[in-house]
Amino acid sequence: MAPVVRFAPSPTGYLHIGNARTALFNALFARREGGTFVLRLDDTDTARSTPEFAAAIAEDLRWLGIAPDRSVRQSDRIALYDAAAERLRASGRLYPAYETPDELERRRRRQLGRGQPPVYDRAALRLTQAERTALEAEGRRPHWRFRLDPGPVTWTDLVRGPCHVEAESLSDPVLVREDGSYLYTLPSVVDDAEMGITHVIRGEDHVTNTAVQIQIFAALGAPVPVFAHHNLLTTASGEGLSKRLGHLSLRGLRADGYEPGAVASLAVLTGSAEAVRAVADLDELARLLDLAHVSRAPAKFDPHDLDQLNARIIHGMDAAEALPRLAALGIPPARAEAFWTAVRANLTKLSDAAAWWRVVEGPVMPVVADAAFAAQAAALLPPEPWDGGTWKAWGDAVKARIGLKGKALFLPLRLALTGLDHGPDLSGLLPLIGRERALRRLRGEAA
Ligand code: GLU
């Protein structure tokens, strides 16, 4: 049976690289297995969800190269959740509770003071009808809790292997708030069941939810999907990511000039059995994804590794892919291919190309320490047309005439031609700079 998976972010912020890990695990799994990838927006929290964040999520996924086969929003599906809640009420699994957050907090502290686990004591289940009526007459409205069955909840996790959670260690979860709105727990199960989700691949911060949700699947008579809880990306110091850390948002990384392939490689391969390396092709990345060998330890990553991955991707990028983007930087198409071949090995980000184009087009402030040497070299410049062999031919001629060689010869020429002591191989750059500009620069003129 072809798998159906989903990525289910809340549109309450921008996706960060840790969210990208979950999204990619799902999308790549579907891609490799010939399955379906659903984007589900968990937007039942209407106070914090916004259409702008929802649009940004779709856009950021597109940038990563992920195209959902289907997109749904929970806010369009409330009737399904109402029906499920009604069934759970009817079967006695969903019960009203009236405690205020304050009362619950006081109770929790008392339990902790007595050395007891802070598990909800189910006082609401012991209320009589008369007591409930009295509370409602006071103006209290109930929230609704799911009555957990006692005993162990077990599943075989594709990442973590055999898992088990004792239901007695958990509070009966609140599924419906006082105002009738749903917390995430029930809608997620209803959707997973209704959409035929076969595999729930998500972060290990959801392990406890899974125990609860397995009981809800059973209470609704729905088949339980396979679960896979992957480790979470953390910074090198072990700090978790949050949507507040805007600089690791996908759009922040994109604005900083990182390639989606670099971000995807880091997001997927960190904390896996594979070495972290640049894999720009999502099919290849999908082949490397092996849930059974995702580490149990936190997936620590260093954002600086992105630079190296990015450079690798740029160095391997062919001209056809680079050309439209070079055009967007203002580099004329007629010369862009030769330029790309000349500079790509020196770029960390594609946008760095703009600075090298300025070196080609000028004006460059040349550095000429020895004007006599520069004049002699200028006199030996071959006539145009120039090609990839010109730089060497010219260098050989200057060497033969003046006797300098190696760095003593090439560094002053580079400083005069580019104003810099480092940069791409001049074999590629010199023909782009051209004879006229080269002559002026050798004379020490800004050109
Ligand atoms: N909206 C939930 C989250 O962002 C989804 C969790 C899940 O995949 O079930 O954490």
Automatic annotation (TrEMBL):
- Placement of sequence motif 'KMSKS' region: 240-244
Q: What is its EC number?
A: 6.1.1.17
The sequence motif named 'HIGH' region is recorded at 9-19
Q: Which PROSITE patterns match?
A: AA_TRNA_LIGASE_I
GO cellular component labels:
cytoplasm
Query: Start and end of every Aminoacyl-tRNA synthetase class I anticodon-binding domain?
Result: 384-443
One Pfam family it belongs to? Anticodon_2
Annotated Glutamyl/glutaminyl-tRNA synthetase class Ib catalytic domain ranges read: 4-307
UniProt GO BP: glutamyl-tRNA aminoacylation
Catalytic activity, reaction form: tRNA(Glu) + L-glutamate + ATP = L-glutamyl-tRNA(Glu) + AMP + diphosphate
Which subcellular locations apply to this protein? Answer: Cytoplasm
One annotated GO molecular function is: glutamate-tRNA ligase activity
* Keywords tagged on the record: Aminoacyl-tRNA synthetase, ATP-binding, Cytoplasm, Ligase, Nucleotide-binding, Protein biosynthesis
Report residues binding ATP: 243
What InterPro entries does UniProt report for this protein, alphabetically? aa-tRNA-synth_I_cd-bd, aa-tRNA-synth_I_codon-bd_sub2, aa-tRNA-synth_I_CS, aa_tRNA-synth_I_cd-bd_sf, Glu-tRNA-ligase_bac/mito, Glu/Gln-tRNA-synth, Glu/Gln-tRNA-synth_Ib_cat-dom, GluQ/Sye
EC class of this enzyme?
A: ligase
Domain of life (superkingdom): Bacteria
What PANTHER family does the database record attribute to this sequence?
Answer: GLUTAMATE--TRNA LIGASE, GLUTAMATE--TRNA LIGASE, MITOCHONDRIAL-RELATED
- UniProt subunit comment: Monomer.
UniProt record similarity statement = Belongs to the class-I aminoacyl-tRNA synthetase family. Glutamate--tRNA ligase type 1 subfamily.
Which function does this protein serve?
Answer: Catalyzes the attachment of glutamate to tRNA(Glu) in a two-step reaction: glutamate is first activated by ATP to form Glu-AMP and then transferred to the acceptor end of tRNA(Glu).
Q: Which HAMAP family match?
A: Glu_tRNA_synth_type1
Protein name in UniProt: Glutamate--tRNA ligase
Which species does this protein come from? Methylobacterium nodulans (strain LMG 21967 / CNCM I-2342 / ORS 2060)
